[in-house]
Amino acid sequence: MKYLFFDIECSVVSKNAAKICAFGYCLTDEKFHILEKEDLLINPQGGFHLTDRKGTQGLVLPYEYAKFKSYPTFLQHADKIYALLEDQDTLVVGHATMNDVKYLNLESKRFHLPSFQFDFADTQFLYMNRIGDFSRQFGLGVIAQQLGVEFVAHRAVDDAYATMRIAEAMCRSEGENVTLFDLIKKYEIQPGRIENYEITLTTSKGLELYRIEQEKRKEAREKAKVEFYRFADREKRKRAKQGLLKNQTVCFSHPLELELPLSKKLLSAAFAQGAFFTSHAETCDLYVCFEGEGGPRLKSVTGKVLTAEEFSAYLGVE
Fold first, then answer.
1. What Å distances lie between residue 307 and 260, 263, 290, CA to CA?
2. CA distance 209 to 75
3. Which of 148, 155, 85, 89 is nearest to 115 (CA)?
4. Long-range contact set of residues 141-147: C-beta below 8 Å, sequence gap at least 24
5. CA distance to 45, 69, 72, 199, 221, per residue, from 40 (Å)
6. Mapping DSSP to helix (H, G, I), strand (E, B) and coil, where does residue 269 land?
7. 198-210: per-residue pLDDT in tens?
8. I want to staple 144 with a disulfide (CB 3.0 to 4.6 A). Which of 23, 64, 149, 256 is the partner?
């Protein structure tokens, strides 16, 4: 069995188009000995318009753009790319592989080619399972630095090589020293697949458990939110006519609202000092939050901002 580590760069990426300009790959045996390594440079048949996810800052590829018009088209490279990816004795591996598979899908449709059909693994997803963190994605550079792998970012063949080195490092790290197949099996990962122009995502037992836990936390937050606002509606009837906060309106941050023992205590104390309560941060006189909080809601505040500790001290709440 062999491993095919691959990476794709595009000259243009949009919802319905991805013009591939480089297909880099590194073919190895199960012990990560390199059998082939190549950067297939492709004429994208169009200009280079590269932006970040916000559509602003341009991405610069480490290639001479002017030369791409002289390279073969995707259609001319197709036979080799299909053969590499669809070989039955090869495990296909990428980093954030779903993106590259989408590009292949779009290009096969663009040139009226058959759908690609192969299973694929993902070193990013494998890394997330290995460290037990599904809360965010980890870029190739971040993982490479963590594992001591050096490479030139966005050169397709170098990204493919770095992906291989990352997989190798995870397999040979302390406590592992296994094949890539063994590592995938250990974390109960189900590889993704493309077939009939449909793409199935990679998944794992760890991801499913994470999603279940996230759903439980979401339900708990919703329950706490409902309880807090019911409490606020009841307690406002006890609002004093005089006090330190007479005729001032207070608002709590969402994280503070959900800490029910503290938020209830502070709100009761605020009402006892003549305060009104609002859920609209932009209209409050006093906004109370935990130290270190940020985000757009805090930025909308025009009144005074106090930490929960400062507010507690001001009201004499222990």
1. 16, 12, 5
2. 42
3. 85
4. 143/95, 147/173
5. 15, 14, 9, 24, 50
6. helix
7. 999 999 999 999 9
8. 149
Q: pLDDT tens digits for 282-311?
A: 999 999 999 999 989 999 999 999 999 999
Query: By the 8 A CB rule, do 305 and 289 touch?
Result: yes
pLDDT in tens, 248-281: 999 999 999 999 999 999 999 999 999 999 999 9
SS3 of residue 217 by DSSP: helix
Sign of the C-alpha dihedral computed for residues 107, 108, 112 and 113 taken in this order: positive
Complete domains list, the chain, with CATH: 2-201 (3.30.420.10), 223-315 (3.40.50)
How many other CB atoms are there within 10 angstroms of residue 304's CB atom?
A: 13
Which residues contact residue 11 at a Cβ distance below 8 angstroms, ignoring those fewer than 6 apart?
19, 20, 21, 44, 46, 47, 48, 49, 50, 68
Q: Which residues pair with 194 in a beta bridge?
A: 118, 199
DSSP letter assigned to residue 138: -
How far apart CA 118 and CA 91 sit, in angstroms, is 9
Q: Which of 201, 198, 200 is nearest to 125 (CA)?
A: 201
Which residues sit opposite 27 in a β-bridge? 4, 36
DSSP sequence for 32-89: --EEEEEEEE-B-SS--B---TTS-SPP--SS-GGGGGGSPBHHHHHHHHHHHHH-TT
Q: Which residues neighbour 220 within 8 Å (Cβ) at sequence distance 6 or greater? A: none
Tell me the DSSP string of 233-267. Answer: HHHGGG--SSSTTTT-EEEE-HHHHHSHHHHHHHH
Give, in order, the Cα–Cα distances in Å from 94 to each of 100, 166, 240.
Answer: 8, 11, 64
What pTM did the predictor assign? 0.83
Helix (H, G, I), strand (E, B), or coil: what is residue 196? coil
